[in-house]
């Protein structure tokens, strides 16, 4: 007998981007996808591509920093079925340094990279609880674990990692799991545009990475797929770096020490 149980719904924000698309594609095997982005033109193109590959997916335009948009998003996603998974993937960085940061860029970084994710969770709080098997995965960043520039963005991502743990602790009694994924440099289209201007950009980045291969968007999606799967049923409140070893330690920094004439061992 064929199982006629309808697929649950996974909400994926930032779905028009490379990582969001990869997450939506992988999760479509087990979920109906509510694909969310502020850029409707780019989102429709991404959704059409996934539909052509058999995904059950709907495009929903939303400014995640607006309360009225989030309320509408929750209603539209509910029409698709039982929401049991939220992937807070949307994010962007403004100022590169504290010197360049202004009150406006600080507000933008905090609003999109921290507040939007928490507000999105709250918008779907009741369906996640009622599902009894809810999952939240927040796409953080290695920037939330160490200092790599973009300090306001990094502070927001550090806050997001803490919020991930708070959700895990407070909502675990409802069967809800909450985890984060922290990518390092990922070979997205944005980085490939940089490569067009600087053909050595990936080689330069790799000097900081112990594992000499940078993640692709599908690597981030695979981590997300694992964390929401039954294989990870007792994993909650963690932040999983997918960073080719960057947060473990830098070979470039190690070389700086070991090549010093004053080096006498660690």
Describe what this molecule looks like in 3D.
This protein has ten helices and seven strands. It is of the alpha/beta class. Strands 3-2-1-4-5-6-7 form a seven-stranded parallel beta sheet, sandwiched between helices. The N and C termini lie far apart (about 65 Å). Mean pLDDT is about 90; it is low at about 260-265.
Short summary:
The chain is α/β, with parallel strands linked by helices.
Order of helices and strands: EHEHEHEHHEHEHHHEH
Structural class comes to alpha/beta
Tertiary shape: globular
The protein's oligomeric status is: single chain
Q: Can you give the mean pLDDT?
A: 92
Task: Provide the fold topology.
Layout: E1 9-13, H1 18-27, E2 32-37, H2 40-51, E3 57-61, H3 67-78, E4 83-88, H4 103-123, H5 125-131, E5 135-139, H6 151-171, E6 177-183, H7 189-197, H8 201-206, H9 217-228, E7 239-242, H10 251-258
Parallel strand pairs: 1-2, 1-4, 2-3, 4-5, 5-6, 6-7
Features:
globular; 7 strands; 266 residues; 10 helices; alpha/beta; single chain
């Amino acid at each position: 007998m064929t199982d006629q149980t309808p697929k649950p719904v996974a909400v994926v924000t930032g779905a028009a981007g490379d990582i969001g698309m990869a997450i939506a594609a992988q999760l479509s095997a087990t979920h109906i996808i509510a694909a969310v982005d502020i850029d409707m033109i780019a989102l429709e193109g991404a959704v059409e591509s996934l539909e052509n590959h058999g995904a059950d997916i709907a495009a929903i335009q939303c400014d995640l920093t607006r309360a009225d948009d989030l309320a509408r998003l929750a209603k539209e996603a509910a029409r698709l079925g039982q929401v049991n998974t939220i992937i807070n993937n949307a994010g962007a960085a403004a100022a590169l340094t504290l010197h360049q940061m202004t009150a406006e860029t600080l507000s933008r970084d905090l609003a999109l990279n921290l507040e939007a994710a928490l507000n999105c969770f709250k918008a779907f709080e009741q369906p996640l609880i009622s599902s009894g098997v809810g999952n939240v995965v927040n796409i953080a960043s290695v920037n939330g674990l160490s200092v790599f520039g973009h300090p306001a963005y990094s502070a927001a991502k550090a806050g997001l990692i803490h919020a991930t743990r708070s959700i895990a602790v407070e909502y675990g009694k409802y069967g809800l799991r909450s985890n984060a994924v922290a990518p390092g440099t990922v070979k997205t289209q944005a980085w490939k545009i940089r490569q067009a201007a600087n053909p050595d950009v990936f080689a330069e980045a790799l000097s900081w990475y112990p594992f000499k291969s940078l993640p692709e968007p599908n690597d981030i999606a695979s981590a997300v797929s694992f964390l929401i799967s039954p294989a990870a049923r007792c994993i909650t409140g963690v932040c999983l770096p997918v960073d080719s070893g960057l947060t473990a330690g830098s070979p470039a920094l190690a070389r700086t020490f070991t090549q010093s004439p004053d080096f006498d061992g660690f």
